From TrEMBL:
InterPro entries hit by this protein: FAD-bd (IPR002938), FAD/NAD-bd_sf (IPR036188), RIFMO-like (IPR050641)
Protein name (database record): 2-polyprenyl-6-methoxyphenol hydroxylase-like FAD-dependent oxidoreductase
Keyword line: FAD, Flavoprotein, Monooxygenase, Oxidoreductase
Pfam families per the UniProt record, alphabetical: FAD_binding_3 (PF01494)
Cofactor or coenzyme needed: FAD
Location of the FAD-binding domain: 4-338
Keyword Transferase applies: no
Top-level taxon of origin: Bacteria
GO molecular function: FAD binding; oxidoreductase activity, acting on paired donors, with incorporation or reduction of molecular oxygen, NAD(P)H as one donor, and incorporation of one atom of oxygen
Length: 493
């Protein structure tokens, strides 16, 4: 029996990881110490890049059928709108923000995992592990109090912000804790005049107020409140913040969740220690204000799963796994820096700085290029791996994406259950010979290149690994020969 990969934590990241591994036929077990899924709405925003990944994994339809479509975000002061950014300018087949409570995201991912033959083992806690060159010996405790030793091929810590795996590895979680606290409320609103498919941010001298639709009539409210006291807020307090900072005439009722949270912005340096990986909040935590934490974590899983599948199946050189941290760590750092800047902008206290912020925001959001730059960032479609060790060649002189960039967003996204690279090149003998030489890595189907003449090697997760001009195969060869397992190395022709 092959050893399973052990995924610890069945939040959105662990569930994505387990489902992706199961889709690629890698034996996997997933455990969670809690008895059941979260009932809290927590992360609401699923951005286009995550939707693209869910489409490739074959479970997007269920998400689209369950979530609410948001089409724009507006910035207001009282009843005056300073600016509005529409999501239809996002260069993705899914140019929208899907609003879906995290509890639903987890339910849909768990159903998807079940459709692939996987099941979360609940009330099962990881209590110790030892990393060895052959595998990771993990000790877990079941609800009955019984201990079990799992001999895992790899251990993936998707165990959240307080990660046991990260702490056991002794990895520093570097970053800051903001001094300002936030209030969060999921409530019913009447008299709220903003269209129900728009997110709204209200800037006020007292602080910011964010209002996000969840479902017809229900909204998520977030507001900065200075220092947090021990008690959660009550509905009256949230109502008075809405009255002061909001557009006026809005009545709150029927709270489903009233709480407060502090903002941590932290990350580990390296997402890997030998046979142990970290992903999601275990590796990086963000301000919820930017709606990026869960999306970034789920994309960690999409990045790691195909690499682990190829290595486990003996098709790729284990060095491929080093690219996971090299690619994902800069992404989290950049998102942390950006969401940190956004949070600080929202928290400006100085009245002069607040007036300047309103003036500049109004002017800048009038430029379509500025709007596009903002949504491309938020949506995740601008994420790229320009410094990836997997990249080869350059797209100079070609019309199409460069190594490390996301490939061809407007193509229909194919669901494949094998982690395969695809070759996009003109149909000739050399291209077909190359496909024949790397049968374990390359999809046998040759596809037409975006500009009709160059060649693109595209990774299973939809990013470009290598590009070359017509007839110049060396960058593509270089990329493939770096990745292919030495034992599976094809003979030179
Ligand atoms: C109020 C709020 C709003 C947010 N809004 C957004 C948003 O709009 N968009 C967004 O992208 N993100 C948002 N986030 C962040 C998002 O909720 C997190 O990034 C996300 O939950 C991280 O998922 P995860 O799977 O990494 O960790 P978690 O969801 O924390 O899951 C970790 C799991 O590991 C389990 N576990 C822990 N230790 C062990 C152990 N030793 N053994 C077994 N199991 C263990 C836990 O029980 C838990 O189920 C928000 C967060 C908050 C608090």
């Amino acid at each position: 029996m092959p050893k399973p990969v052990l995924v610890v934590g069945a939040g959105p990241v662990g569930l994505t990881m387990a489902a992706e591994l199961a889709r690629y036929h890698v034996p996997v077990r997933i455990i969670d110490q809690s008895q059941g899924r979260t009932d809290k709405s927590r992360a609401l925003a699923v951005w286009p890049r995550t939707l693209e990944c869910l489409a490739a994994s074959g479970c997007l339809d269920a998400f689209l059928a369950t979530g609410l479509r948001a089409d724009a975000i507006g910035i207001h002061t009282g009843s005056r709108r300073i600016g509005r950014i529409a999501f239809d300018q996002i260069a993705s087949p899914f140019n929208l923000l899907l609003v879906i409570p995290q509890s639903e995201t987890e339910r849909l991912l768990e159903t998807h995992l079940a459709s692939l033959g996987g099941k979360v083992e609940r009330s099962t806690e990881l209590t110790a592990f030892t990393d060895t060159p052959e595998g990771v010996i993990c000790r877990v405790r079941h609800a009955s109090g019984e201990n079990e030793e799992i001999d895992a091929s790899w251990l993936i810590g998707c165990d959240g912000a307080h990660s046991f795996v990260r702490r056991t590895l002794g990895m520093a979680f570097e970053g800051d804790t903001l001094s300002t606290g936030f209030l969060i409320a999921d409530v019913h609103l009447t008299g709220f005049a903003i269209p129900p498919n728009e997110l709204a941010i209200f800037w006020h001298p007292d602080g910011a107020l964010m209002v996000f639709p969840i479902s017809p009539g229900r909204y998520r409210i977030i507001a900065d409140i200075g220092t947090i006291s021990g008690q959660p807020p009550n509905l009256g307090q949230v109502q008075s913040i809405m009255d002061r900072r909001g557009p006026g005439g809005v009545t709150l009722s029927d709270p489903a969740w009233l709480s407060h949270f502090g903002v941590n912005e932290r990350t580990v340096r390296d997402y890997r220690a030998d046979r142990v990986f970290l992903a999601g909040d275990a590796a990086h935590i963000h301000s919820p204000a930017g709606g990026q934490g869960m999306n970034t974590g789920m994309q960690d899983a999409f990045n790691l799963a195909w690499k682990l599948a190829l290595v486990e199946q003996g098709k790729a050189n284990p060095a491929l796994l080093d690219s996971y941290s090299r690619e994902r760590s800069p992404v989290a750092r950049q998102i942390l820096a950006e969401s940190g800047r956004l949070t600080r902008l929202v928290l400006l206290r100085n009245p002069l700085a607040q007036r300047l912020r309103g003036f500049l925001a109004h002017r800048m959001l009038g430029f379509p290029e500025v709007q596009r730059a903002i949504v491309n960032r938020l949506s995740g479609i601008a994420i790229a791996y320009p410094d990836s060790p997997l990249n080869a060649g350059s797209a100079q002189g070609l019309r199409g994406p460069s190594p490390g960039q996301r490939f061809m967003p407007d193509l229909p996204i194919a669901v494949r259950d094998a982690a395969r690279f695809t070759l996009w090149a003109t149909d000739d003998t050399e291209a077909r010979t190359l496909i024949g030489r790397y049968p374990s890595l390359l999809d046998p189907h040759l596809r037409a290149p975006p500009d009709g003449k160059g060649s693109w090697l595209v990774r299973p997760d939809g990013y470009v690994a290598a590009t070359s001009r017509a007839g110049k195969w060396s960058p593509i060869e270089a990329a493939l020969s770096k990745i292919v397992a030495k034992t599976a190395h094809p003979p030179k022709t």
